Fold:
Amino acid sequence: MKNLEDYAGDINKCSKCGLCQSVCPVYKETGNDCAVSRGKFVMLDGVLKGDLKLNKNINKYLDLCLKCGKCSDFCPSGIDVCKIFETAKYQYIKNTLTGKIIFFLESRFIFGNFINFFKLITKPFRKKISKKNTNCLKVVYFKGCINNIFPQTDNFLEKIFKNSNVEIIEKDFDCCGLPFLSSGNLKRFAQAKEHNLKMLDCDFDYILTDCASCESTLKQYINAKFINIGELINLQGLKFKYSKPVKITFHKPCHLENDKFLIPLLNNCKNVEYVKMPNYDECCGFGGEFSIKNRKISKAISEKKAENIIKTNADYVVTTCPGCILGLKQGLSGGKNSPKVISLTEFLDNAELIN
Ligand code: SF4
Ligand code: SF4
Structure:
Protein backbone atom coordinates (compact mmCIF):
# COMPACT_ATOMS: atom_id res chain seq x y z
CA MET A 1 0.00 0.00 0.00
CA LYS A 2 1.42 3.39 -1.00
CA ASN A 3 2.03 6.35 1.31
CA LEU A 4 1.44 10.01 0.58
CA GLU A 5 5.24 10.34 0.23
CA ASP A 6 5.09 7.96 -2.76
CA TYR A 7 2.92 10.52 -4.56
CA ALA A 8 5.29 13.48 -3.99
CA GLY A 9 6.32 13.40 -7.66
CA ASP A 10 2.69 13.42 -8.85
CA ILE A 11 1.77 16.26 -6.50
CA ASN A 12 4.71 18.25 -7.85
CA LYS A 13 3.49 17.67 -11.39
CA CYS A 14 0.62 20.08 -10.63
CA SER A 15 1.53 23.27 -12.51
CA LYS A 16 -1.18 25.24 -10.63
CA CYS A 17 -2.73 26.07 -14.00
CA GLY A 18 -6.17 26.06 -12.37
CA LEU A 19 -7.87 24.36 -15.33
CA CYS A 20 -9.46 21.88 -12.91
CA GLN A 21 -11.58 24.73 -11.54
CA SER A 22 -13.55 24.87 -14.77
CA VAL A 23 -14.78 21.26 -14.39
CA CYS A 24 -15.01 20.74 -10.63
CA PRO A 25 -18.69 20.75 -9.54
CA VAL A 26 -17.76 21.61 -5.94
CA TYR A 27 -15.55 24.54 -6.96
CA LYS A 28 -18.27 25.83 -9.28
CA GLU A 29 -20.70 25.81 -6.38
CA THR A 30 -18.41 27.13 -3.62
CA GLY A 31 -15.67 29.11 -5.40
CA ASN A 32 -13.34 27.62 -2.77
CA ASP A 33 -9.90 26.69 -4.12
CA CYS A 34 -9.50 24.10 -1.36
CA ALA A 35 -12.46 22.24 -2.89
CA VAL A 36 -10.60 21.52 -6.11
CA SER A 37 -7.48 19.44 -6.77
CA ARG A 38 -5.11 22.42 -7.13
CA GLY A 39 -5.90 23.70 -3.64
CA LYS A 40 -5.73 20.23 -2.13
CA PHE A 41 -2.32 19.66 -3.73
CA VAL A 42 -1.02 22.91 -2.23
CA MET A 43 -2.08 21.62 1.21
CA LEU A 44 -0.67 18.12 0.67
CA ASP A 45 2.59 19.57 -0.60
CA GLY A 46 2.74 21.53 2.67
CA VAL A 47 2.24 18.27 4.57
CA LEU A 48 5.05 16.56 2.67
CA LYS A 49 7.40 19.46 3.34
CA GLY A 50 6.50 19.39 7.03
CA ASP A 51 4.95 22.89 6.99
CA LEU A 52 1.42 21.54 7.64
CA LYS A 53 0.01 18.67 9.66
CA LEU A 54 -2.31 16.12 8.08
CA ASN A 55 -5.09 16.99 10.51
CA LYS A 56 -8.84 17.39 10.91
CA ASN A 57 -8.93 20.58 8.80
CA ILE A 58 -7.14 19.04 5.84
CA ASN A 59 -9.32 15.95 6.18
CA LYS A 60 -12.39 18.23 5.95
CA TYR A 61 -11.13 19.49 2.58
CA LEU A 62 -10.36 15.95 1.42
CA ASP A 63 -14.02 15.19 2.14
CA LEU A 64 -15.05 18.23 0.13
CA CYS A 65 -14.78 16.21 -3.08
CA LEU A 66 -17.34 14.21 -5.05
CA LYS A 67 -14.66 11.78 -6.36
CA CYS A 68 -16.20 12.44 -9.76
CA GLY A 69 -12.77 12.33 -11.42
CA LYS A 70 -13.60 15.24 -13.74
CA CYS A 71 -10.41 17.11 -12.71
CA SER A 72 -8.30 14.01 -13.41
CA ASP A 73 -9.78 13.60 -16.89
CA PHE A 74 -9.13 17.27 -17.63
CA CYS A 75 -5.72 17.75 -15.96
CA PRO A 76 -3.01 18.53 -18.56
CA SER A 77 -0.41 17.00 -16.23
CA GLY A 78 -2.35 13.71 -16.20
CA ILE A 79 -2.43 13.41 -12.40
CA ASP A 80 -4.47 10.55 -10.93
CA VAL A 81 -6.09 12.90 -8.45
CA CYS A 82 -8.47 10.51 -6.64
CA LYS A 83 -5.67 8.00 -5.84
CA ILE A 84 -3.74 10.76 -4.05
CA PHE A 85 -6.77 11.97 -2.07
CA GLU A 86 -7.65 8.39 -1.04
CA THR A 87 -4.09 7.75 0.18
CA ALA A 88 -4.00 11.02 2.17
CA LYS A 89 -7.38 10.22 3.65
CA TYR A 90 -6.25 6.72 4.69
CA GLN A 91 -3.06 8.08 6.23
CA TYR A 92 -5.04 10.52 8.36
CA ILE A 93 -8.13 8.54 9.31
CA LYS A 94 -6.62 5.11 10.10
CA ASN A 95 -5.36 6.26 13.51
CA THR A 96 -8.42 8.29 14.56
CA LEU A 97 -11.35 7.04 16.62
CA THR A 98 -13.78 8.03 13.82
CA GLY A 99 -11.68 6.03 11.38
CA LYS A 100 -11.69 2.97 13.61
CA ILE A 101 -15.51 3.15 13.93
CA ILE A 102 -15.99 3.63 10.16
CA PHE A 103 -13.59 0.78 9.36
CA PHE A 104 -15.49 -1.49 11.77
CA LEU A 105 -18.85 -0.58 10.17
CA GLU A 106 -17.40 -1.23 6.71
CA SER A 107 -15.91 -4.60 7.69
CA ARG A 108 -17.15 -7.79 6.06
CA PHE A 109 -18.65 -8.72 9.42
CA ILE A 110 -20.95 -5.66 9.56
CA PHE A 111 -21.26 -4.28 6.01
CA GLY A 112 -20.88 -7.69 4.33
CA ASN A 113 -23.48 -9.35 6.55
CA PHE A 114 -25.84 -6.40 6.15
CA ILE A 115 -25.84 -7.00 2.38
CA ASN A 116 -26.05 -10.80 2.91
CA PHE A 117 -29.12 -10.30 5.10
CA PHE A 118 -30.90 -8.42 2.30
CA LYS A 119 -29.82 -11.03 -0.26
CA LEU A 120 -31.46 -13.66 1.93
CA ILE A 121 -34.74 -11.89 2.68
CA THR A 122 -35.24 -10.73 -0.93
CA LYS A 123 -34.48 -14.18 -2.42
CA PRO A 124 -38.17 -15.19 -2.71
CA PHE A 125 -38.87 -11.97 -4.64
CA ARG A 126 -36.13 -12.50 -7.23
CA LYS A 127 -36.86 -14.40 -10.43
CA LYS A 128 -34.22 -17.02 -11.11
CA ILE A 129 -32.23 -15.99 -14.15
CA SER A 130 -32.65 -18.93 -16.53
CA LYS A 131 -29.77 -21.07 -17.76
CA LYS A 132 -29.05 -21.08 -21.50
CA ASN A 133 -27.39 -23.38 -24.02
CA THR A 134 -23.61 -23.64 -24.09
CA ASN A 135 -23.06 -21.60 -27.27
CA CYS A 136 -24.51 -18.35 -26.05
CA LEU A 137 -22.81 -15.17 -24.90
CA LYS A 138 -21.71 -15.56 -21.29
CA VAL A 139 -21.81 -12.56 -19.02
CA VAL A 140 -20.88 -12.48 -15.34
CA TYR A 141 -23.32 -10.12 -13.69
CA PHE A 142 -21.85 -7.73 -11.11
CA LYS A 143 -24.99 -6.62 -9.28
CA GLY A 144 -23.54 -4.05 -6.91
CA CYS A 145 -24.78 -3.44 -3.36
CA ILE A 146 -27.99 -1.60 -4.30
CA ASN A 147 -29.21 -4.45 -6.50
CA ASN A 148 -28.29 -6.91 -3.76
CA ILE A 149 -30.63 -5.02 -1.43
CA PHE A 150 -33.48 -4.44 -3.90
CA PRO A 151 -34.59 -7.36 -6.12
CA GLN A 152 -36.20 -5.40 -8.99
CA THR A 153 -33.21 -5.28 -11.36
CA ASP A 154 -32.82 -9.09 -11.31
CA ASN A 155 -36.44 -9.35 -12.39
CA PHE A 156 -36.07 -6.69 -15.11
CA LEU A 157 -33.01 -8.51 -16.48
CA GLU A 158 -34.78 -11.86 -16.47
CA LYS A 159 -37.66 -10.36 -18.46
CA ILE A 160 -35.50 -8.39 -20.93
CA PHE A 161 -33.03 -11.20 -21.72
CA LYS A 162 -35.34 -14.21 -21.29
CA ASN A 163 -35.39 -15.08 -24.99
CA SER A 164 -31.96 -13.71 -25.89
CA ASN A 165 -28.86 -15.70 -26.58
CA VAL A 166 -27.25 -14.57 -23.32
CA GLU A 167 -26.35 -16.53 -20.22
CA ILE A 168 -26.24 -14.37 -17.12
CA ILE A 169 -23.86 -15.89 -14.56
CA GLU A 170 -24.34 -14.90 -10.93
CA LYS A 171 -21.45 -14.86 -8.46
CA ASP A 172 -21.16 -13.98 -4.81
CA PHE A 173 -19.28 -10.70 -5.28
CA ASP A 174 -18.32 -8.28 -2.53
CA CYS A 175 -18.90 -4.53 -2.96
CA CYS A 176 -16.93 -3.01 -5.87
CA GLY A 177 -15.00 -1.05 -3.21
CA LEU A 178 -15.91 2.53 -4.12
CA PRO A 179 -17.41 3.43 -0.71
CA PHE A 180 -14.20 2.15 0.93
CA LEU A 181 -12.04 4.30 -1.32
CA SER A 182 -14.17 7.33 -0.44
CA SER A 183 -13.86 6.75 3.29
CA GLY A 184 -10.10 6.11 3.01
CA ASN A 185 -10.50 2.46 4.02
CA LEU A 186 -7.82 1.17 1.66
CA LYS A 187 -7.40 -2.12 3.55
CA ARG A 188 -11.07 -2.99 3.10
CA PHE A 189 -10.82 -1.98 -0.56
CA ALA A 190 -7.92 -4.42 -0.99
CA GLN A 191 -10.05 -7.14 0.65
CA ALA A 192 -12.99 -6.51 -1.71
CA LYS A 193 -10.61 -6.52 -4.68
CA GLU A 194 -9.06 -9.86 -3.66
CA HIS A 195 -12.47 -11.47 -3.15
CA ASN A 196 -13.94 -10.16 -6.43
CA LEU A 197 -10.95 -11.33 -8.43
CA LYS A 198 -11.39 -14.83 -6.95
CA MET A 199 -15.02 -14.88 -8.09
CA LEU A 200 -13.96 -14.62 -11.73
CA ASP A 201 -12.61 -18.17 -11.97
CA CYS A 202 -15.01 -19.15 -14.76
CA ASP A 203 -15.37 -18.78 -18.54
CA PHE A 204 -17.11 -15.59 -19.57
CA ASP A 205 -17.14 -13.07 -22.40
CA TYR A 206 -17.99 -9.93 -20.47
CA ILE A 207 -18.62 -8.58 -16.99
CA LEU A 208 -22.12 -7.09 -17.05
CA THR A 209 -22.82 -4.01 -14.92
CA ASP A 210 -25.88 -1.97 -14.07
CA CYS A 211 -23.99 0.84 -12.35
CA ALA A 212 -21.46 3.18 -13.94
CA SER A 213 -19.67 3.75 -10.61
CA CYS A 214 -19.25 0.01 -9.92
CA GLU A 215 -17.92 -0.51 -13.45
CA SER A 216 -15.43 2.30 -13.21
CA THR A 217 -14.15 1.01 -9.83
CA LEU A 218 -13.91 -2.62 -10.99
CA LYS A 219 -11.90 -1.47 -14.01
CA GLN A 220 -9.21 -0.26 -11.61
CA TYR A 221 -8.35 -3.88 -10.76
CA ILE A 222 -10.08 -6.27 -13.16
CA ASN A 223 -8.54 -6.66 -16.56
CA ALA A 224 -11.50 -8.00 -18.55
CA LYS A 225 -14.10 -6.85 -21.08
CA PHE A 226 -17.00 -4.96 -19.52
CA ILE A 227 -20.46 -4.36 -20.93
CA ASN A 228 -23.31 -2.37 -19.45
CA ILE A 229 -26.97 -3.27 -19.84
CA GLY A 230 -27.55 -0.70 -22.61
CA GLU A 231 -24.60 -2.03 -24.61
CA LEU A 232 -25.76 -5.63 -24.13
CA ILE A 233 -29.25 -4.74 -25.37
CA ASN A 234 -27.76 -3.17 -28.51
CA LEU A 235 -25.49 -6.18 -29.05
CA GLN A 236 -28.52 -8.46 -28.90
CA GLY A 237 -30.50 -6.15 -31.24
CA LEU A 238 -33.46 -5.92 -28.84
CA LYS A 239 -36.34 -3.60 -29.71
CA PHE A 240 -38.95 -2.02 -27.44
CA LYS A 241 -42.24 -0.18 -27.73
CA TYR A 242 -44.00 2.13 -25.30
CA SER A 243 -47.79 1.88 -25.41
CA LYS A 244 -48.09 5.69 -25.66
CA PRO A 245 -45.59 8.43 -26.60
CA VAL A 246 -43.11 9.39 -23.86
CA LYS A 247 -40.42 12.03 -23.73
CA ILE A 248 -37.16 11.23 -21.95
CA THR A 249 -33.93 12.95 -21.06
CA PHE A 250 -30.69 11.28 -19.97
CA HIS A 251 -28.27 12.10 -17.16
CA LYS A 252 -24.74 10.89 -17.91
CA PRO A 253 -23.11 9.73 -14.65
CA CYS A 254 -19.59 11.12 -14.06
CA HIS A 255 -18.27 7.54 -13.89
CA LEU A 256 -19.85 6.43 -17.19
CA GLU A 257 -16.93 6.21 -19.60
CA ASN A 258 -19.00 6.51 -22.74
CA ASP A 259 -22.66 6.76 -23.61
CA LYS A 260 -22.43 5.81 -27.28
CA PHE A 261 -24.98 3.05 -26.66
CA LEU A 262 -27.76 5.51 -25.81
CA ILE A 263 -28.91 6.87 -29.20
CA PRO A 264 -28.85 3.49 -31.04
CA LEU A 265 -30.78 1.99 -28.12
CA LEU A 266 -33.40 4.77 -28.16
CA ASN A 267 -33.70 4.47 -31.95
CA ASN A 268 -34.93 0.94 -31.24
CA CYS A 269 -37.60 2.17 -28.79
CA LYS A 270 -40.86 3.07 -30.51
CA ASN A 271 -42.86 5.99 -29.10
CA VAL A 272 -39.83 7.33 -27.19
CA GLU A 273 -38.65 10.87 -27.89
CA TYR A 274 -35.21 11.87 -26.54
CA VAL A 275 -34.47 15.44 -25.50
CA LYS A 276 -30.88 16.22 -24.52
CA MET A 277 -30.73 18.40 -21.43
CA PRO A 278 -28.18 21.25 -21.19
CA ASN A 279 -24.99 19.97 -19.48
CA TYR A 280 -26.31 16.43 -19.48
CA ASP A 281 -22.95 15.17 -18.15
CA GLU A 282 -22.79 17.62 -15.22
CA CYS A 283 -22.55 15.89 -11.82
CA CYS A 284 -25.79 15.12 -9.94
CA GLY A 285 -24.21 16.24 -6.64
CA PHE A 286 -24.71 12.98 -4.72
CA GLY A 287 -21.23 11.43 -4.36
CA GLY A 288 -22.14 8.88 -1.64
CA GLU A 289 -20.87 10.10 1.71
CA PHE A 290 -20.29 13.59 0.19
CA SER A 291 -24.07 14.10 0.39
CA ILE A 292 -23.97 13.42 4.14
CA LYS A 293 -20.80 15.34 5.00
CA ASN A 294 -21.55 18.32 2.73
CA ARG A 295 -25.34 18.32 2.81
CA LYS A 296 -25.98 21.91 1.64
CA ILE A 297 -23.44 21.88 -1.19
CA SER A 298 -24.67 18.49 -2.39
CA LYS A 299 -28.26 19.74 -2.48
CA ALA A 300 -27.30 22.97 -4.26
CA ILE A 301 -25.46 21.02 -7.02
CA SER A 302 -28.45 18.65 -7.37
CA GLU A 303 -30.86 21.58 -7.63
CA LYS A 304 -28.82 23.16 -10.46
CA LYS A 305 -28.97 19.83 -12.24
CA ALA A 306 -32.73 19.72 -11.70
CA GLU A 307 -33.17 23.13 -13.40
CA ASN A 308 -31.67 21.70 -16.58
CA ILE A 309 -33.81 18.57 -16.33
CA ILE A 310 -37.02 20.56 -15.94
CA LYS A 311 -36.19 22.67 -19.04
CA THR A 312 -36.62 19.54 -21.18
CA ASN A 313 -40.26 18.94 -20.19
CA ALA A 314 -39.48 15.25 -20.18
CA ASP A 315 -41.70 12.58 -18.60
CA TYR A 316 -38.64 10.60 -17.44
CA VAL A 317 -35.03 11.33 -16.55
CA VAL A 318 -33.13 8.14 -17.20
CA THR A 319 -29.68 7.24 -15.87
CA THR A 320 -27.36 4.28 -15.29
CA CYS A 321 -26.15 4.68 -11.70
CA PRO A 322 -28.18 4.07 -8.50
CA GLY A 323 -26.22 6.83 -6.73
CA CYS A 324 -27.18 9.34 -9.45
CA ILE A 325 -30.83 8.31 -9.06
CA LEU A 326 -30.62 9.53 -5.45
CA GLY A 327 -28.84 12.74 -6.50
CA LEU A 328 -31.41 13.50 -9.20
CA LYS A 329 -34.28 12.81 -6.80
CA GLN A 330 -32.63 15.08 -4.24
CA GLY A 331 -32.57 17.94 -6.77
CA LEU A 332 -36.07 17.39 -8.10
CA SER A 333 -37.76 16.73 -4.76
CA GLY A 334 -40.79 18.88 -4.15
CA GLY A 335 -40.86 20.25 -7.72
CA LYS A 336 -44.27 20.23 -9.37
CA ASN A 337 -44.50 18.34 -12.68
CA SER A 338 -40.99 16.95 -12.19
CA PRO A 339 -40.05 14.07 -14.46
CA LYS A 340 -39.85 10.63 -12.92
CA VAL A 341 -36.27 9.54 -12.13
CA ILE A 342 -35.72 6.00 -13.34
CA SER A 343 -32.90 3.58 -14.18
CA LEU A 344 -32.42 2.63 -17.83
CA THR A 345 -33.22 -0.98 -16.93
CA GLU A 346 -36.54 -0.11 -15.30
CA PHE A 347 -37.42 2.27 -18.13
CA LEU A 348 -37.02 -0.59 -20.63
CA ASP A 349 -38.80 -3.03 -18.38
CA ASN A 350 -41.86 -0.72 -18.54
CA ALA A 351 -41.87 -1.07 -22.35
CA GLU A 352 -42.99 -3.99 -24.47
CA LEU A 353 -40.22 -6.10 -26.00
CA ILE A 354 -40.96 -6.39 -29.76
CA ASN A 355 -39.44 -8.38 -32.63
S1 SF4 B 1 -5.57 20.94 -13.88
FE1 SF4 B 1 -4.01 19.52 -13.00
S2 SF4 B 1 -2.08 20.68 -13.19
FE2 SF4 B 1 -3.73 22.18 -13.45
S3 SF4 B 1 -4.05 23.01 -11.37
FE3 SF4 B 1 -5.51 21.32 -11.65
S4 SF4 B 1 -4.46 19.52 -10.77
FE4 SF4 B 1 -2.88 21.10 -11.13
S1 SF4 C 1 -12.81 14.66 -8.15
FE1 SF4 C 1 -14.52 16.01 -8.81
S2 SF4 C 1 -15.22 17.06 -6.96
FE2 SF4 C 1 -13.18 16.17 -6.48
S3 SF4 C 1 -11.73 17.83 -6.88
FE3 SF4 C 1 -11.88 16.62 -8.77
S4 SF4 C 1 -13.50 17.62 -10.01
FE4 SF4 C 1 -13.67 18.40 -7.88
Observations:
- The chain has a mean pLDDT of 93.
- The radius of gyration is 21 Å.
- DSSP finds 19 helices and nine strands in the chain.
- The CA atoms of residues 285 and 298 lie 5 Å apart.
